[in-house]
User: What shape does this take?
Amino acid sequence: ARFQARLISLVDALLVFGEQGLTPFLLDGQAVVLEDYVAVRPERQSALMAALASGALEAGPWYVLGDNLIPSGEALIRNLEAGRRILATFGANAPNVAYCPDTFGHPAALPMLAQGFGCDVAIVWRGFGGASFPSVDTAWWDAPDKSRVLMFHLPPDGYEFGSALPETSAAARERWLSMHDALSARNRTGVSLVLSGADHHAAAPNFATALTALEDAAQGTTIVRTGLRNAARGVHEAVAALSERNASLALPVVKGELRDSYGYTWTLQGTFATRAHQKRTNARLERALLRDVEPLMALAWLHGGARAHEQSRDGSLTLAQLPALLQHAWRTLLRTHPHDTLCGCSHDDVAMAMDARQRRVAALALELRESAMALSLTHDGVRARAGVVRDDSLLVVRNRSSRARGGVAEIRLVDTLARVRVGPASAADTVATHAVSPRAVSSVAGCATQMGTSRVMHRRRESPQHYPENHLTREHLVLAWVPEIPPFGVRVLGVDVSNAGEPIGDALRANEHSVPPPQVTAREISGRVEISNGRLTVVASPDGVALMDGERLLERVLTVETVADEGDSYTPSLRGKALPLRLVSVRLGATGPLRAAVHLTWLWREARERIRVRTTLIVDAGAGHLRCDVKGTNARRNHRLQLVWHVDVRADHIVADAAFGPVLRTPVTTTSDAKPFELPPDTMPMHRWVAISDAQRGATMFSDGLAEAHASHQRLAVTLVRAIGQLSRNDLPERPGHAGWPTDIPRAQCRGPFGARLGLMLHGEWNDAILARAERTADDLLLPLTGESWSDLAGDPRTASGPQLNGEGLIVSAVTLSEDGTELVLRALNVTDSSTTGAWTLPSDERVEWCTSRLDGESQSTWITTNGEIAFAVAARAVVTHRVRRSAQ
Assistant: This one.
């Protein structure tokens, strides 16, 4: 709030004094500040629009200047989309520059992202300049799909290089000498870009005078005051002129991720586990929007009929509102993506604001999901509430994957026990919950089931035309071996129930699953627990945990370790050896027939500090991976807590999931000259998985969103908690000097509960087939089949399918709707190093039209009419986007 107040004064000064030599001014490459300004000064919007139109002010291309390594590739797209959308409301266009002046590294796919939004120049600072890169300030940067962008690298002082320019001649000459030396050392084109500003800085009133002094000092050098858009054009022209003069002076080509500035400037690759719980929540929220909400909105577009697209008269949400609400949800989530926020290197007040925004997105995603599902099932909640007797014997199972799936589904069934009234008359109501005879679930659609836990709770039954009803319910968590659910689709199933052993309803469907589930077994003998699904076997005892997968045996596969960390929010500083937590309890959990589990409790205690972790190892029927659910409580300060898989694999080959496909990772090494600057940590960023392999075998570790992993010889680890209490320290041997202001951040000690979902898959040598299996396993682990009771669902049980993607090596990046809700947007990614062909199949005979487009939605082909099949070719590691609309014919 204090920064917003300062922003108002900053922009007001630019608008009032802009004609007196304070322009052009770049609003840090992001459009969100425009919203923040007009929220307080709506009467100044016209003046702001005029300044943007004239070029006196520039904003964008991003909505927020976010982190680039932690968010998903789609989140980076939504960031650029939101930036353009906000700029359009102010009558402005974004500069055609991928402006990333302070991000702590960059994904390999950023050139592809830049090209997809019409950006032909990328300006970067951190992540480039280390020993693994050529010593130049300008280079071509190629993405894995061969997309190319011209990269300009800022000087060692980055975006602050040209700040606080002096006004006097003597000081200007001294400043120019140091600037000239830094710029000329790596210059290849004869042109350099210098940014004049810094964090939280308004325009300098003496800038024109200081610039004149600098021009006088820089005799023989032309200094041009310009904006970001024109600066990018100047760099391109310089590169073209260089090629014309001498073809042998062509710029070097850089490929892959930018994560090495060691010896040049601080890379700050130690932030991936700071406030790890927020990064994990962010990943879950991104998945909720990308794999739950958006595909269900597409399902409503395909199956909801005319009512789904029209404005309702009764206040129900339809596709008239859902796309706008979806964009609002994304903007709210993106406001937590600025790199200092998502990376956790901010004041505790910023972290608490992030928590609040994440809770808001979670609530909104749930509302959008339920509304889209109702539309896709043509369910009218108002009519159902008015005239249908409540019936809990129907449930809706949904598949959040791009392939049809059956098998184990996690079901939430609800029995209504009593209606709870509100108001003065409710004082006489008494409900003896223990006296209510609960219904037992005997099967789901005639399929095999496994009962889990039950609890009594209150649930509301709502309708936009009715006062809410509150019901006392018993909620059952059930596993069911369900029939195949179509891709990105839903299927309505019936539940067979009994009351005190007496049937109260016939089966609504016979067993439609032709293949019976494989049996899962569990047994406990003298404190030793063994669980198995016939392929994977886990044996746990107080001495440790063993895993068998076929003929492979890992005798001590799992440990939990803590090590002292005296670092700050940017950089770990590990002290001493990692200490294993003691395995103090081994207890049998679920016993089959669909799932077996063993609960392991780990403990560390020293003086008044304590860490308690429960890992639940799970094997499901038919699964080829081991699932590990983690719940713990941290009461230790200044340490790093990791879960470690000990495997029988050399780390000859390290591959990690990243934005728009996997990347090959090699350890970052530094020269001796880099030591005084910064030492790289032994960890790396991860999205959903990291794999190691050698010539004979491999292992892949999965995570639900923890952003820091370690991969080395026979070891895969993920950081559960990184507990630190200082924003910045200047006495770290790994990074001498302050990366930020010294500030106490006690909430970053992350004391209290934490949780995660992890997994391990053993396999052979890494290849495209194993990559495809890793992608399928990530869906099965992080996006399992789920179902829930659906109150008052009218009509017969039915199935609705979403778009299906076919093609070797192809995975879905997005299935969503356009901003106005009139078009489907289908985006596929080829994760292999070979070109391939694929096809989208739409589950309808309705004639539609499709075209290919850039990432920003700009059409790249003519519209083609089809009855539902969209065939296409895609290059290696490339993304292809299709827009689909209903045919006017």
User: Anything to note?
Assistant: The mean pLDDT is 91. The longest strand covers residues 466-485. The longest helix spans residues 348-376. The chain is about 25% helix and 35% strand.
